[in-house]
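Hi C.,

You asked whether I'd gotten around to modeling the 497-residue construct. I have! Everything is below, sequence then structure, no commentary in between.
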Amino acid sequence: MEPSLEITRVLVRNPGPLRFNYTVYEVTLLVDSSKIVCQRRYKDFNLFRNRIFSFSKTAFEQLPEFPPKQLRALRPSVVQFRKAQLQSWMRKLLNCPELLPHFYGFLGMSESFLQSLSYSDGDKVILELKEALERNPRNKINVLDDFTNIYFRRRRLLTDIGAYELIKILMRLAEYPLTINLAVDIIYKLCCPDTHFNHELIKQHFCKLSVEELQKLKLDCHIIKTKLHDCSVQAHELLNLLSIKYYDKMKEILNNNDEAFSKFNNWNNQIIERRASRERFKSCDNVEYRCLFNENQMTIYYKYSGKSLYIWGEVPLKGKKDSIQDWFLVPEKRKIWDLRLKEMRVDGNKIDFIYKSNRIKYVSSCSLCIIDGENSIILEFSPAEDEMSKKMYENNKIFGKIAMNFRLWNEQETDIKCTWNISLCPNTSRIYMGDLIEEECYLKESLMNLRRLCDEDTLNTYIDTEEENQILISLRRKQNSIGSRVRTESANTFSRN
């Protein structure tokens, strides 16, 4: 049950002879079937407002306008105006989890009641999710949809226990093909600052997951296989969020450990060198990748460097010289080429295009043509209409250029070669050119390396619970039996993979 608040009565009090009358507002609050009634003066509200502004930098932006002080405050119009404004101001406070304990304390609630509320807010919704999944094991998708609508409806308090329990539930759901997409979607929202107030708490618990548990999310599979689905974007951004968190934790671990830091850098260098040494990345002149482009074959060349994957292609076009020049240089006459370029639609100075590869339709986008000298046109890639493409183009600086090389056959005809250039980051290029990169995801491997590093450090840290102490003893025994070969074999295994 969502908390509800109302100013039920306004009373005028007389403090005694030779003193001014004042107004008292009676506030009624309903929280989880509990009813709290208290009376506060305007000056009490004003002092509380100043107090929360002193310790919360965001409170001023989150809360609506507070009713100002006025002369002749007992006038009915002033009283009704203040009642409406105060009621709106307090109702907004109910949607600010970080301010709720202070607000409830201002209304006179006990500390034990505040503790029960902190559990019943976010944690209670998680408990209801767990019970609903147990009652409806065959209807998990509808249960998750209901949870998403309820949980993210407003900002909620979440305890450490609640965050841990929620992650356990979602990780179990990620094991099922029918619910893994929804599980990734919810995890992404929980880790995103724009959608979840307690995003840092969730990410802290993700840092505690082992490599095997992280692999259950199959984030790399989402990026590879669901190219035109929002879940692909969320999986990629979730990997970025987790990598930042792991990197922060790694810096803490490696603060005074140069040997371990060097080891991590060596692992990543092995990834880059292994890719660079692949035959497909050795040369860009004799390697071709064919993809359907209208009626012609578009030849795609690519070259891999440590930082980016560079892709460019050539499309031969033939036609009358005047017509070709008109199409490129005069936007109004580009319609002449509509039939020739079947997959392209020309609209003014925009080109909508689609290219295909391996029977999969990849990306549809809008490009702005900018005339760049006599023989070239710059294509500036802009976001497509759908949200997935929009996010991809915002995250990656993609650019293109068509260069025209004229060769005059006779007075009426000429041959034009259009060259298309694209530069993509290595961990996202596979989304567009899926078969140019090996199966392992670069970013995923970096995450695994960081996780391994954290796991090794865990062997030398103090663990609280008895169960974890037993695990620690077992791990140390295994480590002693293997001896100094552990690090060497681990690095060799990683290199072979």
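If it helps when you're writing up: The CA atoms of residues 67 and 226 lie 52 Å apart.

Thanks,
B.
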